[in-house]
Amino acid sequence: TLPKVAWIGLGIMGSPMSENLLKAGYQVTGFTLEQDKLDRLAKAGGTAAASIAEAVADADVIVTMVPASPQVEAIAYGPDGILENAKQGALLIDMSSITPQTSVDLAKAAADKGVRVLDAPVSGGEAGAIEAVLSIMVGGEKADFDTAKPLFDALGKTIVLCGPHGSGQTVKAANQLIVAVNIQACAEAVVFLEKSGVDLTAALDVLNGGLAGSTVLTRKKDNFLKRDFAPGFRIDLHHKDMGIVTDAARNVGAALPVGAVVAQLVASLRAQGDGGLDHSALLRAVERLSGS
Ligand code: NAD
Question: Model confidence over 156-190: pLDDT tens digits?
Fold first, then answer.
């Protein structure tokens, strides 16, 4: 029989991901802060819990998909949190993108309570979550990875154990660096092409067929063309991720000269009130610099 799943955090990613588990036959009990998201889970065949303690009490596997390290710490620790209320031997899979150190610390604290932990952040965006084709980068013990693999198969396509606790988060930090720099390069090309008077749709199509092609260019093309910056992946979250990769790289002495500049541009969007927009809104930062 399939393990019983508790799912904490039913946002842009958590809702479609938990629904994919329901489709695969898992029993899912969920908790999140928005009532409409709890209603959505119940409508999809899951069970809405009234608290974290209630959600995790009977669970074999607990998945968390919340914004950042402070939220993971808030839901894991404390009297009403996961570690106090989970069954002995339960497996906690944190799929949020957080600092590698938070994942390492969580694994240690959980071991003291008889709870096993994997860090398993994802890439592929809302579309990847809906279509169950996420890349899942995992840190932790091989035996726990093997236990979780069938569940990961219901959520993603490329599923890799990267190393010990925190490794999944380190790989995710690198992912976010690459994505931000790639979006920035595309945004600069879009402004340059428009100011040059070239047909943008034609240009992006031919660029995408060559070495300049990328998942970013494919997925974000319409955002650029229509100036549609509905999230998707919020600037606020990418700002958090640029902080994670900047700190982690400094800790190991890796230089991120271009990443540092893009981190500043992401921060500038936030400062101008665009933190709730999709990260393709880096186009706005380039337009402002270009006087567009
Ligand atoms: P979101 O803001 O849409 O959802 C976060 C959810 O966490 C919300 O439903 C909120 O209610 C819940 N939450 C927050 N604090 C809580 C608490 N104390 N108790 C219970 N629930 C709580 O965010 P998202 O876009 O789904 O992103 C979630 C994580 O996934 C982030 O770490 C993000 O960086 C990462 N991620 C997002 C995307 C994307 O494209 N959106 C892609 C890959 C990874």
Answer: 999 999 999 999 999 999 999 999 999 999 999 99
Is the same domain home to 28 and 150? Answer: yes
φ/ψ bin of 102: left (φ > 0), alpha (ψ from -120 to 50), beta (otherwise): alpha
ipTM rounded to 2 decimals:
0.99
Question: How would you classify the pairing of strands 116-119 and 61-64?
Answer: unpaired
The answer on 213 and 143 residing in a single domain is: no
pTM of the model: 0.97
- Going by CA atoms, what residue is nearest to atom 15 of ligand 1? 71
Protein residue closest via CA to atom 21 of ligand 1: 32
Domain that holds residue 33: 5-163
Q: 37 and 51 in contact (C-beta within 8 Å)?
A: no
Give 65-92 pLDDT, tens digit per residue: 999 999 999 999 989 999 999 999 999 9
For residues 157 and 25, membership in a common domain is answered with yes
Which residues have CB under 6 Å of ligand 1?
8-14, 31-34, 37, 65-68, 71, 74-75, 96-97, 122-123, 125-126, 232-233, 237
